[in-house]
Amino acid sequence: MTTLSRDTVGDFSKLTDEITHFLLFWLLLLGCLHPAGSLVWFAVCVCVSL
Protein backbone atom coordinates (compact mmCIF):
# COMPACT_ATOMS: atom_id res chain seq x y z
CA MET A 1 0.00 0.00 0.00
CA THR A 2 2.78 2.46 0.89
CA THR A 3 4.71 1.74 -2.32
CA LEU A 4 1.58 2.48 -4.37
CA SER A 5 1.02 5.87 -2.71
CA ARG A 6 4.71 6.72 -3.01
CA ASP A 7 4.60 5.95 -6.75
CA THR A 8 1.48 8.08 -7.11
CA VAL A 9 3.19 11.01 -5.39
CA GLY A 10 6.23 10.58 -7.63
CA ASP A 11 4.06 10.56 -10.76
CA PHE A 12 2.19 13.64 -9.54
CA SER A 13 5.38 15.62 -8.88
CA LYS A 14 6.71 14.53 -12.29
CA LEU A 15 3.48 15.75 -13.89
CA THR A 16 3.62 19.11 -12.10
CA ASP A 17 7.26 19.51 -13.21
CA GLU A 18 6.24 18.93 -16.83
CA ILE A 19 3.36 21.41 -16.53
CA THR A 20 5.69 24.00 -14.98
CA HIS A 21 8.25 23.61 -17.76
CA PHE A 22 5.47 23.82 -20.36
CA LEU A 23 4.09 27.04 -18.85
CA LEU A 24 7.56 28.56 -18.53
CA PHE A 25 8.25 27.74 -22.18
CA TRP A 26 5.05 29.47 -23.32
CA LEU A 27 5.69 32.45 -21.04
CA LEU A 28 9.16 32.79 -22.53
CA LEU A 29 7.71 32.56 -26.05
CA LEU A 30 5.05 35.17 -25.25
CA GLY A 31 7.70 37.35 -23.65
CA CYS A 32 9.62 37.33 -26.93
CA LEU A 33 6.57 38.01 -29.12
CA HIS A 34 4.43 40.35 -27.03
CA PRO A 35 5.48 43.99 -26.48
CA ALA A 36 4.40 43.86 -22.83
CA GLY A 37 5.72 40.30 -22.51
CA SER A 38 9.01 41.44 -21.01
CA LEU A 39 7.08 43.01 -18.13
CA VAL A 40 5.15 39.77 -17.63
CA TRP A 41 8.40 37.80 -17.75
CA PHE A 42 9.97 40.15 -15.19
CA ALA A 43 6.93 39.72 -12.90
CA VAL A 44 7.17 35.93 -13.23
CA CYS A 45 10.88 36.00 -12.36
CA VAL A 46 10.13 38.13 -9.28
CA CYS A 47 7.35 35.75 -8.20
CA VAL A 48 9.60 32.71 -8.66
CA SER A 49 12.46 34.28 -6.71
CA LEU A 50 10.14 35.10 -3.78
- For the CA atoms, what is the radius of gyration? 16 Å
Order of helices and strands: HH
Total beta strand runs: 0
Secondary structure tally, helices: 2
Mean pLDDT: 78
Regions with pLDDT < 50 over 5+ consecutive residues? Answer: none
Beta-strand percentage?
under 5%
Number of domains: 1
Task: Tell me the structural class.
Answer: mainly alpha
Share of helical residues = over 70%
Shape: elongated
Report how far apart the termini are. 37 Å
Largest sheet: none
Produce the secondary structure layout.
Elements: H1 2-33, H2 37-49
Helix pairs in contact: 1-2
Keywords: Membrane, Transmembrane, Transmembrane helix
Transmembrane segments: 23-48
Describe the structure.
Keywords: Membrane, Transmembrane, Transmembrane helix. With about 50 residues, the protein is an all-alpha fold. The chain has one domain. Helix content is about 90%, strand content about 0%. It is built from 2 helices and no strands. Helix 1 packs antiparallel against helix 2. The model has no long low-confidence stretch (mean pLDDT about 80).
